[in-house]
Amino acid sequence: LVAEQTGVEMKMIPNPRQEAAENELDVANRKFCNLGLEPTLLDEGLFSEVTEIVKKYKDRCDPTKILPASFWNKKRAEECADLDPESVKFGEGFKEEAKA
């Protein structure tokens, strides 16, 4: 959904946390829904709305700060050592408008 709507290429990075790739967490909201909760889902409409806000304030973003800078242990830090903060780029959907 993100890549499709923004033109951003997905880039997988090592997990900076020390945890299993899969976990046993089973999340359900059935009880809350039975009590009247109407969950907000990350659908295309909501994502489009959030994307417009991001575009509006993108000049406040420093892409070099997006990659993880703290790690749970030395091993995780070493796995992420070759990540280049300058490699974080805005996709087509976030390019600056040409200024006259």
Folded structure, characterized:
By secondary structure, the protein is an all-alpha fold. The protein has helices spanning 2-6, 30-34, 44-56, 74-79.
What key attributes describe this structure?
disordered C terminus, 4 helices
Task: Describe what is shown at a glance.
This protein is mostly helical and 100 residues long.
One letter per element, helices H and strands E, the order comes to HHHH
Number of extended strands: 0
**Largest sheet composition:** none
Task: Return the structural class.
Answer: mainly alpha
Distance between the first and last residues' Cα: 32 Å
Low-confidence stretches: 96-100
Q: How are the secondary structure elements laid out?
A:
Layout: H1 2-6, H2 30-34, H3 44-56, H4 74-79
